[in-house]
Amino acid sequence: MKDCCRFIALIVFLSASTFILLEATPSRLTERVCLGTDNGMSISGDSAIRYSRYKNRYSNCTYVDGNLELKFLDADQDYDLNFLKDIRIVTGYVLIAVIYARYIPLHSLQIIRGSNNFEWTDGSFCSLCVIMNHKPNDSDIGLRELQMPALTEISNGNVVIYKNNFLCFIDTIAWTLIVPRTSQVAVVYHETEKAKCYGCIHGCHKLRTDTISCWGLGIDMCQTQNNGSACSSSCAYRCFGPTSSQCCHSECAGGCTGPTNRDCYLFTGGTIA
């Protein structure tokens, strides 16, 4: 009986300690975890049922454990996807396919871990996959902005943005700040059908790189830049300045403000620093 009580007490202590640890991290946030899905392009139900499922699963979620799959919201309406706005971390891949919303408001998304990738064609895999988000033979219905201004790292896998004929601003993104190699990024349009786009607003101009990059039309859609392409060759991809003494700690993902693991924006395990 005493052993049983000790075991229960230990469980209570560990549970309480875990909660305190989460509350005491420098992020000052407790993650709201939701489980992702692993269905690929398979679907069930109509678009109204799928929308309800997505909203129920991802509302108030900050951490997707697994894949974020949004697929086949293909009725003739502009879907409100604001329930995605709090998601900060996805451990698997992000798949956005045949979504007829004008915007994907992943405003808080900072890191896609890519612990597993989506196979979109034979032998071709991606961890950010944005595929055919427009209505064929229609001049109005389709995705305009992929709103991910906070995204600073895709840790593993490729980027595929395929035949989203109304999608703007993607060509402005400095992908080398997000993925290690530009060969990981493929953007394909039906060139004869590609919409004409506005440019980024001047407020998104970065003096350090003399570039203008954005995910949408507005000062809040400027691309976050964390020195990814300005690092010394001695740094393992991330840094907080151009010299060899300004490398981020090996536990950092997405950048840092100093050399220790206490200065990370994110940890390589996917948690907020």
> What structural class should be given to the helix and strand makeup?
alpha/beta
Count the helices. How many? Answer: 2
> What's the average pLDDT?
82
Kindly report the spatial arrangement of strands forming the biggest sheet. 1-2-4-7-12
Which range best describes the helical content: under 10%, 10-25%, 25-40%, 40-55%, 55-70% or over 70%? 10-25%
How far from one another are the termini? 42 Å
What Rg is obtained from the alpha carbons, in whole angstroms? 20 Å
At the first level of CATH, what is the class of the largest domain?
A: Alpha Beta
What is the beta-strand fraction? 15-25%
Question: CATH superfamily name of the largest domain?
Answer: Receptor L-domain
Query: Per CATH, which architecture of the largest domain?
Result: Alpha-Beta Horseshoe
Task: Please report the total strand number as a whole number.
Answer: 18
GO cellular component, one term: membrane
Pfam families: Furin-like (PF00757), Recep_L_domain (PF01030)
Signal peptide: 1-24
Organism: Octopus bimaculoides
Q: What keyword list fits this structure?
A:
5-stranded parallel beta sheet, 2 domains, alpha/beta, globular, about 270 residues, single chain, about 15% helix, 24 nucleotide stem-loop, u2 snrnp hairpin iv. U2 a', Chain A, 2 helices, Hormone Receptor, Insulin-like Growth Factor Receptor 1, Chain A domain 2
